[in-house]
Write a structure and sequence with these properties.
The protein is an alpha/beta fold. The chain has eleven helices and ten strands. The structure holds adenosine-5'-triphosphate (ATP) and magnesium ion.
């Protein structure tokens, strides 16, 4: 087998035995999973399972106690958040952290903060995300806090896309959204995957996540309880155990 063929088979993100947490609280007790190019991988699990902690650890916001994180063949362990974003791993945090009193356009420009791109490249990227999210282009001067929940989620995703991620991690993008708006968010996620961005999707809406995902991992108490293809997991004992205990 050529090294090229081997390279194309290596996962984009490979996490092994990851242990991390907060100060004196260990949350992740040895998590392993992987994401391949153009995959939507969903991380499921009940409240407190460690899903957000996992994303925060991958994006460099929490210290890795032990284990490995390989992304595009390089280790991310110990690297600061800015370098991890530059490497192509972006995180849209739970609860859409926008500057609510600032306009849509200012929020997008803040998404480019620190990139030191040429004006032309900045403009090219802004035009590209506004094309993906026409509803943002329609109201560039409105305060982010005045957008609907779904529009705010789109803005948060657009902000991350300005960094041209290879892998986008989304923490509960459907939170607080009406079902029809959840449809729109899921459609955007699938479109991004089709455009070549791999996705890690953390979701409370298990059925919705399984509809769009290629692979699902189920977390419980900081460990991977199991994983599989959505069609294997729908209605499975694994899912029931993860959410109901036992
Ligand atoms: N800042 C923090 N300091 C200390 N412990 C924390 C902190 N944030 C979360 N934890 C703890 O880590 C554990 C996992 O929390 P985490 O937020 O990762 O869960 P989650 O799976 O994202 O849950 P949810 O579905 O409710 O968002 C919980 O026991 C929680 O109390
Ligand atoms: Mg969470």
């Amino acid at each position: 087998m050529s090294s090229d063929a081997l390279g194309s088979e290596a996962p984009l993100l490979e996490v092994r035995d990851l242990v991390s947490g907060y100060d004196h609280v260990r949350v992740l007790e040895g998590v392993s999973f992987e994401v391949r190019d153009r995959q939507i991988v969903t991380i499921l699990g009940s409240n407190g399972a460690g899903k957000s902690t996992l994303l925060k650890t991958l994006s460099g916001l929490l210290v890795v106690e032990s284990g490995s994180i390989q992304f595009g063949g390089k280790s991310l362990v110990g690297r600061p958040p800015g370098e991890i974003v530059d490497a192509g791993l972006c995180h849209v945090a739970e609860g859409r952290r926008l500057f609510r009193t600032q306009s849509v356009m200012s929020n997008l420009e803040l998404g480019l903060y620190g990139t030191r791109l040429s004006r032309a490249e900045e403009k090219r990227r802004l035009d590209e995300v506004l094309e993906t999210f026409p509803m943002l282009a329609e109201r560039p001067n409105i305060a982010a806090g005045a957008l609907s929940g779904g529009q705010q989620q789109m803005l948060a995703i657009a902000q991350a896309l300005l960094r041209t991620p290879r892998l986008l991690m989304l923490d509960e993008p459907s939170l607080g959204l009406a079902p029809i708006v959840v449809d729109q968010v899921m459609a955007v996620i699938q479109k991004l995957r089709d455009q070549g961005v791999a996705i890690v999707l953390v979701e409370q809406l298990v059925e919705r996540a399984l509809e769009v995902a290629d692979i699902a991992y189920v977390l419980r108490s900081g460990r991977v309880l199991g994983s599989g293809r959505p069609e294997e997991l729908q209605g499975s004992d694994l899912i029931k155990r993860a959410y109901l205990g036992g």
